[in-house]
Specification:
single chain; alpha+beta; Immunoglobulin-like; 38 strands; 32% strand; elongated
């Protein structure tokens, strides 16, 4: 069957209606490969689903009379653009036309992730012109073979240019039903550089009025020299389902039928003269992009420069351009390929990588390489070069006095390592601040006014009056005092009778007895003064406990013996004995792990061996507790300049443990001072609790992160996105030597355990 002749290409790209577009994260697109075909021809219906969530079922649609579905296929492709992965599932439906007319294909219905999508109708015109999509029978080498099947071999384009990407198609045209798969031998391709054959595809076509089944295989290849070339025939053996064929001259023929295609004679055209000096053998339509792995580095750290060549053409045959930048030394160059699917002429990518070491500090220009290729569509040579890049190169020494003897960073001298030291404990500081609140409250209670002072003064006045007065004044004061005692529920009936008899009956002989009894009763009723000393003692105790807890919450230095050993190791490093110093640092870490300064030294020693992955491991280990350690911060910047720590988790608020403790203590104490203003006091107390618990909670949460560090460049399936050395990924699960990791918010894959370092216990 000859290749289809497309009269009109009209893509119908439809924005599909989503049930709830506000939350839709899926993009669905449907289109026809052509808007008009001839009777007997075929057209492809393409349905692409981008970033699906969950399983994707087959699209549903109905075809009008006159159109029929000949075959379908499904493919999946993942790409990585600007740090985000895109997953695209493509459905291809081969639609044949049996009679002329104007048709509407669709609507296409699809349900993904609980959301329904529906496209509009796509117009298709079928004409009665002589069909160019019909199968062209081959001249078989056996008389009965053409009645059963035949092999047809075609090349697109038919007369290629040297180096041009071509597509060789071999079609097995079956005119009867077959009982089993065919035995196929591909053709030879001398004079061509070829890749692997694509997967076989099967569809239905028409040969005159006869319907046939076509099995097609395709191969991408490239002619290597101009002049005539011959592709040898393809061979196949098929078995008809009837078990044999009736031959009017020889009876029943053999069950197996051998097929041989015609050989294919190709005239390869030479490339035009006048190729530019930068011509690297490319033939096709390409675009160039130029970038580096980072925009700043230090003079002693290399960078990676990447030239990406994207487009359609002979990407595998492209030669790396000559690249000798003036401000950089070129140490190595490699090539990475991301080619289209086998058996297709789609777009791909070829990446050229150079490892560059700056020759001097400053803002250095990284000029882009120049490439030239031949564009067969335009019929001319094209020369291209992306824009140059600027790289900020810092001095290997961090300013004046940035390094000590032996190249050891000066920060190691100003920030010595102290293994075994303990970080501050903010919850204790929080408790100390709350005890300040308690001390202030107790002291305020001790200074509170006496509620019985007035009553006590009145009783003392009565006692004085009763003790000094005589006669009517005494009996009047005695009557008032007895009435007060009666109001308090005391039994003073006989006492009041005696007082009434004296006042109103003239009996004054009981004055001394009544005086004595009243003094006793009033003295017993005087309320005791409040015990202020207990509140004062509680306030003093709370204050002492507050100071004690605040002192206990402060950082604690490690043993002096370990500090001396760390200083000795630093001295060995300055003396040029880096291996001895590194071994001593490693032993100290094994004995007392966790010191950020010690981790900084081990990371720096790994950088001296250009081992970015191990340096990243030590930085991650050292950053698990204290934040903003000066030595670790300085080395972390060097590791980042070397390409490490990509994807490492950061801190929400980079405060040290003692700073969190101080904030918690001050907020809790301020809440106690503002206790008379209830709302403000409660707010300050809440902030104090948050500050006191933030550091231990954050340390606990960061301890639950199971991280892994990439040891060497490795592609992460299924999208084959490259993971670089020193990149930090999150471990999802580890099963039987396989590790499933998440490299970005939506990129996940599995690799062997040997591809990673794990920053757990050393």
């Amino acid at each position: 069957m000859s290749a289809p002749r497309v009269l009109q290409v009209a893509a119908c790209v439809l924005a599909l209606v989503v049930a709830n577009p506000a939350v839709a994260a899926v993009d669905v697109e449907a289109r026809l490969s052509a808007g008009a075909i001839e009777t007997g021809g075929t057209v492809q219906l393409l349905v692409e689903v981008s970033d699906p969530r969950g399983a994707v079922p087959d699209p549903q649609f109905a075809l009008p009379a006159g159109l029929e579905l000949l075959g379908s296929s499904r493919s999946q492709q993942m790409s990585w653009v600007n740090g985000r992965s895109t997953n695209v599932i493509t459905f291809r439906f081969e639609i044949g036309a049996s009679r002329a007319g104007r048709y509407q294909v669709g609507p296409i219905r699809l349900t993904v992730g609980g959301q329904a999508f529906r496209s509009g109708e796509m117009p298709l015109t079928v004409t009665d012109s002589a069909p160019s999509t019909r199968v062209t029978p081959s001249r078989g080498r056996r008389g009965g073979a053409n009645d059963v099947a035949s092999l047809v071999m075609t090349l697109e384009p038919a007369t290629p240019i040297v180096g041009q990407a071509c597509l060789l198609k071999v079609q097995l045209i079956q005119r009867v039903d077959m009982s089993e798969d065919s035995d196929y031998t591909p053709p030879g391709t001398p004079g061509f550089w070829s890749e692997s054959w694509g997967d076989a595809s099967t569809f239905r076509g028409h040969e005159g009025r006869r319907e046939v089944v076509v099995t097609e295989r395709a191969l991408r290849l490239y002619p290597l020299a101009p002049g005539p070339a011959v592709l040898s025939p393809a061979h196949a053996t098929v078995t008809p389902a009837s078990g044999g064929l009736l031959d009017p001259f020889g009876g029943l023929s053999a069950a197996h039928v051998g097929l041989v295609s015609d050989s294919l004679r190709v005239s390869v055209r030479p490339l035009p003269a006048g190729a530019p000096q930068e011509f690297g053998g490319g033939v096709g339509d390409f675009q160039l992009s130029w970038n580096t792995d980072r925009e700043h580095t230090t003079q002693d750290q290399a960078i990676t420069a990447r030239l990406d060549v994207r487009g359609t053409g002979n990407l595998p045959l492209l030669r790396a351009p000559d690249y000798q930048p003036a401000d950089f030394e070129v140490f190595a160059s490699t090539v990475e390929d991301s080619l289209p699917r086998a058996g297709t002429l789609g777009a791909g990518r070829r990446r050229f990588l150079w490892t560059l070491l700056p020759k001097r500090p400053g803002r250095l220009r990284a000029p882009a390489p120049v490439m030239a290729w031949y564009d067969p569509q335009a019929g001319r040579y094209v020369t291209g070069s992306p824009g140059d890049l600027t790289v900020e190169v810092l001095s290997a020494k961090a300013g004046a006095g940035g390094e000590d003897a032996g190249g050891v960073p000066a920060v190691f001298r100003t920030q010595p390592s102290r293994p075994g030291s303990r970080a501050a404990w903010p919850p204790l500081a929080l408790a100390g601040g709350l005890l300040v609140w308690a001390a202030l409250t107790c002291w305020e209670r001790s200074r509170a006014p006496d509620p019985n002072a007035a009553e006590r003064g009145r009783l003392r006045e009565w006692l004085r009056s009763i003790g000094l007065a005589h006669g009517p004044d005494f009996w009047r004061a005695a009557d008032d005092a007895s009435y007060w005692l009666q109001s308090r529920g005391e039994q003073v009936l006989r006492l009041r009778e005696a007082i009434s008899a004296a006042r109103y009956g003239g009996r004054t002989d009981q004055e001394e007895d009544v005086r004595r009894r009243l003094v006793e009763r009033l003295g017993a009723s005087i309320p005791a003064p409040p015990a202020r000393w207990t509140w004062q003692a509680a306030a003093l105790t709370s204050l002492v406990l507050s100071v004690t807890l605040a002192a206990l919450s402060l950082p604690r230095p490690g043993p002096e013996a370990l500090a001396e050993r760390a200083d000795t190791a630093d001295a060995d490093a300055r003396a040029g004995q880096l291996a001895v110093a590194e071994a001593a640092w490693a032993r100290l870490w094994d004995e007392r792990p966790g010191d950020a300064g010690l981790a900084a030294r081990l990371a720096w020693s790994a950088l001296q061996r250009d081992d970015v992955a191990v340096a990243t491991v030590w930085v991650v280990r050292g950053d698990r507790q204290e934040a903003r350690d000066a030595a670790l911060s300085a080395i972390s910047q060097r590791v980042r300049d070397a390409g490490g720590l990509v994807g490492a988790p950061g801190r929400a608020l980079p405060l040290k443990s003692w700073e969190w403790g101080l904030v918690a203590f001050l907020l809790a104490a301020a809440a106690g001072l503002a206790r008379t203003r209830r709302g403000l006091s409660i707010g300050l107390a809440a902030l104090a609790v948050v500050a006191g618990l933030w550091w231990p909670v954050e340390a606990a949460v960061r301890g639950t992160y199971e991280l892994a560090v990439v040891r060497a460049s490795v592609p992460l399936p299924p999208g084959d996105i490259m993971l670089e050395p020193g990149q930090v990924v999150r471990v999802r699960k580890r099963v039987a030597g396989e590790v499933t990791v998440r490299a970005a918010s939506d990129l996940e894959g599995s690799l062997p355990e040997g591809a990673f370092w794990f920053p757990g216990p050393r």
